[in-house]
Design brief:
Bound molecules: NADP nicotinamide-adenine-dinucleotide phosphate
Shape: globular
Helix content: 40-55%
Strand order of the largest sheet: 3-2-1-4-5-6-9-10
CATH superfamily: NAD(P)-binding Rossmann-like Domain
Largest sheet: 8 strands, mixed
Radius of gyration: 18 Å
Order of helices and strands: EHEHEHEHEHEEHEHHEEH
Number of helices: 9
CATH class: Alpha Beta
């Protein structure tokens, strides 16, 4: 059975946060949540780009309920003020979609000194999730949906690289793959803790296969890279179609804790969403614990399971 746009249930009364929802896959997730009557909180780093995206959704669905809050996952101060604003306005959070991401960027570090890719893609979302955990616990049957990638298959975890200092060896593809492996290690570790503590929260993940968005802008450049991107072009699907696995993980009633959704076709690069198998290393307890402990230590986040 195909799980498609029409499979999304009515979301009236639900409050859903989507990080990085002014463009790409996040935009389409926000668009379909809003179409199906959820109140969507767009976590965006530029309020102006967020408003342009929200206006587009409202012009298509005039009854869409959308709020736009500033969120820069590059900066713990911004993450904390996003959480404070959210707590002031809302008493429930049905789904937290940790979607924002950057890929193969030139070396840079976040305001808190993390290498940028693991900083934005993992540490930023780790801190954000901890700050919203109280509301997620209070909300009946809430969900956390992290956004991984096929690239996790090539990832390895090297804690020495979490806070790369410029000048040390930096490999932008390795750094991306590590950050996407981290998204899955975090998903499985948090899901286990939620289970052990009998909390009414599902922790899941999704990946969009290869979808046409602006994510690959730092890949282009050399002739060989451009040629590679041209070849990949045949495998890729639209950003809209790429939003389906995340929409399924966020809304399908049959979803279980630790489920991981992605496209079912052409080596999981495109197609309608089904359950995916993450690589064995994503299930490694040792790596999960290493990442969890380092994430707590470096972000100073706390998770209260009681
Ligand atoms: N496209 C694919 O084929 C593919 C494949 C596997 C996984 N993914 C994953 O899918 C997710 C969405 O990617 P996409 O393809 O939709 O890329 P995209 O079009 O580049 O969108 C990324 C979004 O993340 C936001 N973002 C970046 N840095 C941020 C920060 N510091 N704070 C807050 N938001 C930030 C961007 O905001 P700005 O507009 O302000 O930059 C943008 O809205 C990512 O996690 C990516 O790793 C994508």
């Amino acid at each position: 059975m195909k799980w498609t746009y029409d499979s999304i249930p009515d979301l009236k009364g639900k409050v859903i946060i989507v990080t990085g929802s002014n463009s790409g896959i996040g935009f389409h997730k926000a668009r379909y949540f809003a179409k199906n009557n959820a109140l969507v909180v767009m976590g965006v780093r530029s309020l102006e780009r967020g408003k342009t995206a929200a206006d587009k959704i409202i012009s298509e669905f005039p009854n869409a309920k959308i709020d736009i809050l500033q969120l820069d996952l590059n900066d713990s101060v911004s993450i904390k003020s996003f959480s404070t604003e959210f707590h002031k306005k809302y008493k429930q959070l049905d789904v937290l979609v940790n979607n924002a991401g950057i890929m193969t960027t030139p070396y840079n570090s976040t305001k808190d000194g993390f290498e940028s890719q693991i900083g934005v893609n993992h540490f930023g979302h780790f801190l954000l999730t901890s700050l919203l955990f109280d509301v997620l616990k209070k909300t009946k049957s809430s969900r956390i949906v992290n956004t991984a990638s096929i690239a996790h298959r090539f990832g390895s975890l090297d804690k020495e690289s979490f806070m790369y200092q410029e000048g040390k060896k930096y490999n932008k593809s390795k750094a991306y793959a590590q950050s996407k492996l981290a998204n899955l290690l975090f998903t499985y570790k948090l899901a286990s803790l939620v289970e052990e503590n009998n909390l009414d929260i599902l922790v899941t993940a999704s990946h969009p296969g290869i979808s046409q968005t602006d994510l690959g802008r730092h890949i282009r450049g050399s002739f060989f890279m451009n040629f590679g991107m041209w070849v990949i072009g045949f495998a890729r699907q639209s950003g809209e179609k790429g939003s389906l696995p995340g929409l399924r993980a966020s809304t399908d009633k049959s979803v279980l804790n630790k489920d991981y959704y992605g496209p079912r076709g052409l080596y999981n690069t495109k197609g309608y969403p089904n359950l995916q198998k993450a690589k064995k290393k994503a299930h490694s307890k040792e790596l999960q614990d290493l990442l969890w402990d380092e994430s707590l230590r470096l972000t100073k986040a706390t998770y209260d399971f009681i």
